[in-house]
Design a protein that fits this description.
By secondary structure, this protein is an alpha/beta fold. It has a single domain, classed as 3-Layer(aba) Sandwich (Rossmann fold), CATH 3.40.50. About 50% of the residues lie in helices and about 10% in strands. It has six helices and five strands. α1 packs across α3, α3 packs antiparallel against α4 and α5 packs across α6. The longest helix is centred in the middle third of the chain and has 14 residues. The radius of gyration is 15 Å and the shape is globular. The relative contact order is 0.20. The model has no long low-confidence stretch (mean pLDDT about 95).
Length: about 140
């Protein structure tokens, strides 16, 4: 089973992204052999970036466009439910690893993976996860 970071969904919808084809190839290849899943967080983060202006590193989608993509993602990938233990696991991880700032969002993916025994995370933010016990799949190296 592979959990997706929001940056995977964002590249799937943006054919102008330099990593668009790497992402499609990786998602297709891994999807042949393993379940691909997304979290509520993946969808929230997708929305935030998709509807943000390109001037501030967003995709500039309308809410209608973003809503259609959210529905497509939910149809294509299983959406995980946050387990009750998620907050406690997250709090332990951010404390143990002294995580500060925006990286606390990344740690929530790790906490969810631990809570649900998901061994892998696909992301372009490889450096953000180096100190955590999860296998990272970087689609940028997939050809």
């Amino acid at each position: 089973m592979i959990l997706f970071d929001a940056n995977i969904l964002l590249r799937i919808v943006n054919e102008y992204d330099p990593d668009y084809l790497h992402t499609l190839r990786a998602v297709y290849a891994y999807g042949q052999t393993e379940p691909l899943v997304i979290a509520h967080q993946t969808l929230y983060e997708f929305w935030a970036v998709a509807t943000r202006s390109p001037a501030v590193n967003g995709l500039g989608m309308t809410t209608e466009q973003a809503s259609r993509w959210i529905k497509r993602h939910m149809d294509r990938f299983d959406v995980l439910t946050d387990p009750p233990a998620l907050l406690d696991i997250w709090a332990d991880l951010v404390t143990k690893h002294q995580v500060t700032g925006f990286r606390a969002h990344d740690v929530r993916y790790v906490a969810l993976a631990q809570a649900l025994n998901i061994p892998k995370l696909m992301t372009y933010n490889v450096k953000h996860y180096r100190k955590f016990p999860i296998t990272i799949i970087d689609p940028a190296v997939f050809s």
